[in-house]
Amino acid sequence: MPKSKVLFHTxxxxxxxxxxxxxxKTRKRNIYFLFTGSKKENGRSWCIYCQLAEPVxxxxxxxxxxxxxxxxxxxxxREYWKDRACPFRTDSRSKLMxxxxxxxxxxxxxxxxxxxxxRDLLQMLFEDDE
Length: 130
Description:
Blueprint: E1 6-11, H1 14-22, E2 30-36, H2 48-63, E3 68-74, H3 78-82, H4 87-90, E4 101-104, E5 110-112, H5 119-127
Parallel strand pairs: 1-3, 2-3
Antiparallel strand pairs: 2-4, 4-5
InterPro entries: Thioredoxin-like_sf, TXNDC17-like, TXNDC17_dom
GO molecular function: protein-disulfide reductase [NAD(P)H] activity
Keywords: Cytoplasm, Disulfide bond, Redox-active center
């Protein structure tokens, strides 16, 4: 049986996030959003927990045998994210308190902070698809 395909998307800011979620219609695939800090020139996020989680998440997704949509969302620079008025924090759809945060869209399941880098927790989140 051929491996299922994970479709990846990258959203670079809050406006792109809003546009994307407004266009989610009835879906045949579950959608997951990973919110992370923007990348510096070296290609790594300014957020240390995002740096730690990224390779674990990527490795897990490369082995995942499911049809899902996985969306990376850049929450911006540190100063923008740290502002209490940051729209990612105040938007009722995301309600972010920490990054990284991995959300299953349309559900209550989420992983926050260092949880995103724990393979067993990733497995539990994605197994809820059944």
